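Course exercise 7: structure representation. Students receive a sequence record and must write out the corresponding structure in C-alpha cell form. The form below is the worked example handed out in class, using tRNA-uridine aminocarboxypropyltransferase (385 residues). Read each field label carefully; the graders check that inputs and outputs are placed in the correct fields and that the protein name is recorded exactly as given.

STUDENT ID: A-19
EXERCISE PROTEIN: tRNA-uridine aminocarboxypropyltransferase
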Amino acid sequence: MLPSTPTRPLLGSKTPLFLHPQQTFCNFFNKNPNSQMGTKPFSSKSPSSLPAEAHRTTDAEAAISLQEWQGWGTISPVPSMVKQVIQDLKLLEKDIDSEMTFDGNHGKLSGDFKVHEDKKHRAKYASLGNSEEKLQFFSARQIACRLLGSRGYLCQKCWLPLEDCMCSKVTTCSLWHKLRIWLYMHPKDFLRQNNTGKLLWQVYGVQAASLCLFGIVEHEEMMWNELNHAGRNKVWCLYPNKNAVTESVKDGVGSAVDPANEDGIMHFILIDGTWSNSNAMFRRLQDRAKLVWGQELRCISLNTGVSLMHKLRPQPSWDRTCTAAAAIGLLYELQLVPEFRSFGLEKQAEAVETALEVLLKALTARRLRMGRSISRRERHNRDIC
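STUDENT ANSWER:
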C-alpha cells in the first residue's frame, strides 16, 4: 500500500475523506438500527381519517410509473421485480382484507398487514433457489416498500419530508464532463432522509452522478455497460480494503488519464450504505470486475478527515466519513493534480460542500422542532450516509 499523503484541512472543516476496512455484511432480515426523521404513520385508509401526509393507495396508484420512478433520482426503467413486489402487496391486501400501513420512516410496514406480509415474504425468500435470487428479491422488496410508504410524505428531489424540503436552497453546478460518479447504494439507504449521496445528483444532475441500487438488475447492468465500455483503466472504486492494492489519486488517476483525450471519461464508484453492509457491496463489485476484465477494480485512497455530518451522524472512527464528503475529497485531490487544475474541480467540490451544509441545517432544524437531540448516540455509529 502506498504511504498516505499528509492530511490537509478540507470540507466545511474542509476535510477530505474516506477509507474503511472490511466489515461483516449483516443478515438481510436483521432489523435496521438506523432511526429516521419522522414517526408519523402512513396508511392506505381514507384520507379523512389520516394525517395530512397520508393518502389512499388505490390499485391505480400502486403501479409505479416511469415518471415517478425517475423522479426519485434514477435514470433507469422501472425495475421489473419492484413492480412485481408492489403487485403482490396489493394482492395480499385483497386476500386478507387488510390495508397497507407504513410507520416510522414511512418505508416500514406496520400493523396487521405487516404480520401477514412478513410471513409471506419469508416463505418466498426461503423458496428461492440461490443467493442471487434472494438478493434481488430482498432489494426489490425494500425499495417497493420505501416507494409506497414515502408517497406524499417525502420530497422526491431531496428525500426530506415535504415541510422540510431544502431544494430551493441547493445551487446546481456542472461536473467536469470527463468525470462520472456512480452512487452504488444499498436498498436500506434508498430514500433515507439523512443520506448524503443524493446531494451529488441534486447538484450535478443524474447523468453526471448516477444512482445504482445494489441488487437491482436494471441498475447494475446499466452501470456495468458504461464501465465495460470505458475499460478497467478508467474506473476506480473509493473503497479499498486492507487486502486490496490501493493507489493515490495523483499516482492512480493522474498517470492513467490524458485530459486532452476527449474519449477518456473517468468513472468513480462510491459505495453508499452502512459500514456493515458495505463489505458485501464491495465484494459484489469485485466479483463482477473479475468476470468482465479478469481483474479486480482499481481502488484509490484519499486523505482522511471528518465530515460536517459527523456531529449528527457519528462514524465508527475519525478516518471514515459520509458519501458526499468522499466525493468532495476526491475532487479536491484531483484539483491538486497538475493535469486537472484548469477544470474548476475545486469550485465543483465547494458546491457539494455547500449543499451538505444545507442538509445538515435542515436535519438539525427538524430534530429541534420535534424536541429530539441533535447528536446521535454511539449505538448508531455503524452508519455512513
